[in-house]
């Protein structure tokens, strides 16, 4: 039986402003990428999500990002190496403390937004993030874009890497994600997303935005939790995968 991990970006509300339905997503996913306060999230809200993840047995990862609350971490930035290493350590450490209080622990790191897309191909910023992860806990797994140069770079540096594909994002022919500024970059139809992911899992392929088929070897599938159809997409996707004979299981369990 094929097995796949489903992950989602959670804990991104801030004070009285909610972002997505974290509780509903935690009922569906097997891994949760939890904001660490730099691009989104506040301590009390993050702690609430961590407690619910612990209750449901969902694996927890640090969703680190640029220091960019106003831009939700989606603006390109150029921090110095010292800043990016320090920011990486700081965010993971903060989440580790909250996770301990919630009765769980941080198992992996998944960068967010612009940082995620930058380090996929920028070896310098990638090295800084890798250095930060290794400094605080070299046993943490890095979740990275399937097929991107950072996968080999991180593995050569000694990190375990889990490759990720995106359920609801369009792909370019080179395997990169279509910019959110372009039409069609986000797919909103739950059934279309589910059928697309089932093919990703069974055939390791995805159709790019220009119609080209692209090879895609991923161990985890991301469902964005901040889109209007997030819960419907997650529910339909889980049902479709299970009906197709795919086991849903955290990659953390698959690695152990």
TrEMBL record:
Catalyzes the cleavage of 5-oxoproline to form L-glutamate coupled to the hydrolysis of ATP to ADP and inorganic phosphate. GO terms for molecular function: 5-oxoprolinase (ATP-hydrolyzing) activity; ATP binding. The keyword Kinase does not apply. Keywords: ATP-binding, Hydrolase, Nucleotide-binding. Forms a complex composed of PxpA, PxpB and PxpC. The gene is pxpA. NCBIfam families: PRK05406.1-3, PRK05406.1-5. Its EC number is 3.5.2.9. It catalyses: 5-oxo-L-proline + ATP + 2 H2O = L-glutamate + ADP + phosphate + H(+). The keyword Nucleotide-binding applies. This is 5-oxoprolinase subunit A. InterPro entries: Glyco_hydro/deAcase_b/a-brl, LamB/YcsF/PxpA-like. Belongs to the LamB/PxpA family. CDD domains: LamB_YcsF_like (cd10787).
């Amino acid at each position: 039986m094929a097995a796949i991990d489903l992950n989602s970006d959670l804990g991104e509300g801030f004070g009285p402003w909610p972002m997505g339905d974290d509780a509903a997503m935690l009922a569906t996913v097997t891994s949760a990428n939890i904001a660490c306060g730099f691009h989104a999230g506040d301590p009390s809200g993050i702690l609430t999500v961590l407690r619910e993840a612990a209750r449901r047995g969902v694996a927890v990862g640090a969703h680190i990002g640029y220091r960019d609350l106003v831009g939700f971490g989606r603006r390109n930035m150029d921090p110095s190496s010292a800043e990016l290493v320090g920011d990486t350590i700081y965010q993971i450490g903060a989440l580790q403390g909250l996770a301990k209080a919630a009765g769980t622990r941080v198992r992996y790191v998944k960068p967010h937004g612009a940082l995620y897309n930058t380090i996929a191909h920028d070896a310098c910023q990638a090295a800084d993030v890798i250095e930060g992860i290794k400094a605080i806990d070299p046993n943490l797994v890095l979740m990275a874009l399937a097929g991107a140069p950072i996968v080999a770079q991180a593995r050569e540096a000694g990190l375990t890497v889990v490759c990720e594909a995106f359920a609801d994002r369009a792909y370019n022919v080179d395997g990169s994600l279509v910019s959110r500024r372009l039409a069609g970059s986000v797919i909103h139809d739950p059934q279309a997303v589910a059928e697309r992911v089932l093919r990703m899992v069974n055939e390791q392929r995805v159709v790019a935005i220009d119609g080209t088929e692209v090879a895609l070897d991923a161990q985890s599938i991301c469902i964005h939790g901040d889109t209007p159809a997030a819960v419907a997409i997650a529910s339909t996707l889980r049902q479709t995968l299970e009906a197709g004979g795919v086991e849903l299981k955290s990659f953390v369990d698959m690695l152990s």
